Amino acid sequence: MADEKKLTPRDQDYSAWYNEVVQRAELADYAPVRGCMVVRPYGTALWENVQQGLDRRFKETGHQNALFPLLIPMSFLQKEAQHVEGFSPELAVVTHGGGKELEEPLVVRPTSETVIGYMYAKWIRSYRDLPVLINQWGNVVRWEMRTRLFLRTAEFYWQEGHTAHATFEEAQEETIRMLNVYADFAINDAAMPVITGRKSETEKFAGADASYSIEAMMGNRWALQAGTSHNLGQNFAKAFDIQYLDQNNELQYCWTTSWGVSTRMVGGIIMVHGDDQGLKLPPVLAPYQVVVVPIWRKEGQKGMVLEATERIRAELATRFRVTVDDREEHTPGWKFNEWELRGVPLRIEIGPRDVEKGSVVFARRDVPGREGKSFVPMAGLANAVGDMLETIQADMLAAAAAYRDANIHQAVDYEHLKAVVADAWARAYWCGDLACEAQIKDDTKATNRNIPLDQAGAGPGVCVVCGKPAEEWSYWARAY
Predict the structure, then answer these.
(1) What does the domain layout of the chain look like in residue ranges?
(2) Alpha-carbon torsion (349, 354, 355, 361), positive or negative
């Protein structure tokens, strides 16, 4: 819960601010195992709303949920060379079980392409079995050295979709479809404006033919990869012998995809919208969309205020996620600070005079101070709340988009790029040479976030590093 100490200002120490918000708003806490986290009920409620928003979209696009094992034979990872090379430094390996050394070490899954590939090889026989469209909600382990709650932990929670198709074209269509599903969720549910694009060869998923991402700008102007979608080509199909008989009765290898969003989405929501008072949650995802705070000074006023509060709660509870803070051990001001810290989008205040006038006070979390307050009649209150939450959602997206766009600059040359990425994002032409990409990272610590799918206005240009011809631009920024 909130305490009297103010949060560290973001412009003073952004990392400290983030860690304080996560813990004091009771989203998560550190686990006894290094690099792991405990997601507390409030954080779990937020993650569950993320899950529901994504899961609905997955099912609307024909996907089904399944569950696959946490432990994977080491030999499975070794079947796809790029895959095992990419994940080897991060693997957690089980060597003993039941008091005995295992005949083969088992990897605590860092991702499930291999075990799912093994199962698909058993299930797929004919073109009639395709496409296979499966998603899994679960947890994975990657032995990260530098961890931060939600953003990068040794164990984290996510969804991973895995699909199998008859042709490259179908797999590519699926890869982009799911990228756009992620973008739709980020924009419309998380109020997080994102840029969709293709990852460079250096940044793509280990074992993929091509990787795509949604990239978001955080409040300190760093980037966050908020979701990825991969066209795996036939790499895993050949490694695990995933074949089907086509309509000519000939054996063909499948084309597969994988795609995922994790609890780092929660970290993104915190950093895109949060301010020096704490969380600022978009109404679509907020665990509580509305908090009602009854206020009275005299004991004789208590009954009438609480009676009106209960009527309001009952009316709103059929449409919104609402809570009432009628604790008597805290002052109204303490409660206001508490719910601002926890990011509830709309606070409703009601006192004796409000009851007499048949009105309440709305206080918007996204608009501080008096500017965010308004008097609203109790009659038709549910509709007024609905309209206000829609306005808050739209305004939060607009504010985040304006902030992002104001902090992206077209780099005209290499020196300009180095100056820009010190405190913003650069959009710059890149020839595609990995040496140029590596030079930017070495010189600035900025990475190639993605090559945007929308290249409108790009045209032919020259690489910002080497001056060679370039057809596309990329986004460059420091990133989590």
Answers:
(1) 14-273, 290-394, 408-477
(2) negative
